[in-house]
Amino acid sequence: MTATLLSPPAVTALQPSVTIVVAPRERFGYTQKSLESIYQHTKIPFELIYVDAGSPKHIQKYLAREAAKRGFTLLRSDQFLSPNQARNLGLSQITTDYVVFIDNDIHVSSGWLEPLLRCAKETNAAAVCPLTCIGKPLHDRIHFAGGEARIFMDVQGEQIWRRLYEKRFLVSRSAAAIKHQLYRRACELVELRCTLVRRDIFEQLGCLDEKLLGTQEDIDFCLSVSRANGQMFCEPASVVTHVPEISYRWSDLGYFMLRWSDMWEVESLMYFQQKWALDMDEYFLQRYRQLGQRRHQTFLYPLLHRLQGNRKVSWLENIVIKLEQWLNQILADRHAKLRHTPIKKLTPTSPSPNHKTVPHKKLHRSVLDSHSHPTQLSQPHLMPH
To answer: For 336-346, how does the pLDDT look when each residue is reduced to its tens digit (9 = 90+)?
Structure first.
């Protein structure tokens, strides 16, 4: 990857120590609300890198306007990227001590960033996640409050099984109702949908694993951090919300279907199992049985309900599911054949340290090296592996 070299801004007392890297999760419809929440509710200086991967024209134009107005760096790919591909693109551009990976459908609360940074500095943590809620009303129902993730040996008679243990804390609880139970705690599992990471940990880990296309990237990162003796914390003084509203616009449908495609999930599960030398057990069998469930629950079953009304027509349901699976395979195959995805970089000549009142600036535009597959073009060049 190549980029235009720009003169760094002068070091001041307000020089940011953290860069926020925004990456697509599964859709684009919440882009504006998410970005606005970051600028409205972040009270300390920060840099921001936005990775825009395959968004529709109106989102692309919106982000270009906001990059010019607010002074953040915009990386644009005309093709869809997996979350880890997008995160690595952002990671390759940062120079600050800390990076926050955040998905483009996260709505942050007031003062969300300071507690994460404070926790990281006080504990020397490699990664710190906030209290993550889900849905509306915002910041109400808990989705993730840290968790446990480890590999253990399960001895059953003469057989020894190498298995994955995973547990998530306080799922679906009311944040207000259990406020007294929310405190900073060490954990073994954070979610990359919103997590602050100490940049130098990547000197030990290398970049995020791009072979994990659609699932297991959070657990893989956490197992790697634990193996490197890094600490992780959940800091509930910081609160954000994942807003999973899915529109029925085609502009959201294409990426959503690829993001949760059977191909991406199967390849990710198989690779994860092999990478960590895990035995095939009920954990993986259950995941394979649930292939396509997210797509079906979000789009297919609501569509069938409208078609069938109050009646359930089994033959129609079977046909629609088979058709969807066939179309999903075509979509995933088509994306897999793409070998070139130019990454366009928009970055201000003099980025503001806090990006609070940045006037319109002249932007430099350069095209990063596009002569490689997406899984290769986003390898960071900031640190050795």
So the answer is: 887 555 677 87
Quote the pLDDT of residue 337: 83
What are the backbone angles phi and psi of residue 193, rounded to the nearest 5°?
Answer: -60, -30
Is residue 303 in a domain?
yes
Q: Contact, 175 vs 182, CB < 8 A? A: yes
- Residues near 66 by beta carbon (within 8 Å), at least 6 away in sequence: 35, 72
Burial class (CB in 10 A: 0-12, 13-18, 19+), 327: exposed
Structural domain of 186: 18-246
pLDDT of amino acid 247: 62
Residues 105, 204, single domain; the answer is yes
Look at the chain and report how many structural domains it folds into: 2
Dist CA 306 CA 310 (whole Å) = 9
Render pLDDT for 51-100 as a digit per residue (tens, 0 to 9).
999 999 999 999 999 999 999 999 999 999 999 999 999 999 999 999 99
Residue 28 sits in the same domain as residue 97: yes
Q: What is the CATH number of the domain that holds 70?
A: 3.90.550.10
3-class SS of residue 119: helix
Q: Which of 87-101, 131-145, 309-323, 356-370 has the lowest mean pLDDT?
A: 356-370
For residue 132, count CB atoms less than 10 angstroms from its CB and return exposed for 0-12, middle for 13-18, buried for 19 or more: buried
Residue 4 lies in a domain: no
Q: What is the pLDDT of residue 304?
A: 82
Q: Is residue 353 part of a domain?
A: no
Whether residue 84 contacts residue 214, with contact meaning beta carbons closer than 8 Å, is answered with no
Is the distance from CB of 127 to CB of 188 less than 8 angstroms?
Answer: no
Torsion of CA 304, 308, 309, 310, to 10 degrees: -110
Claim to verify: residue 241 and residue 255 sit in the same structural domain? no
Residue ranges of alpha helices (H) inside the chain are 31-41, 57-70, 83-91, 113-123, 202-205, 217-227, 250-259, 262-275, 282-289, 293-295, 301-308, 314-336, 374-377
- Asked if the structure places residue 293 within a domain, the reply is yes
Helix 31-41 crosses helix 57-70 at what angle (to 10 degrees)? Answer: 20
Report the half-sphere exposure of 233 (CA within 13 A, side-chain side).
23
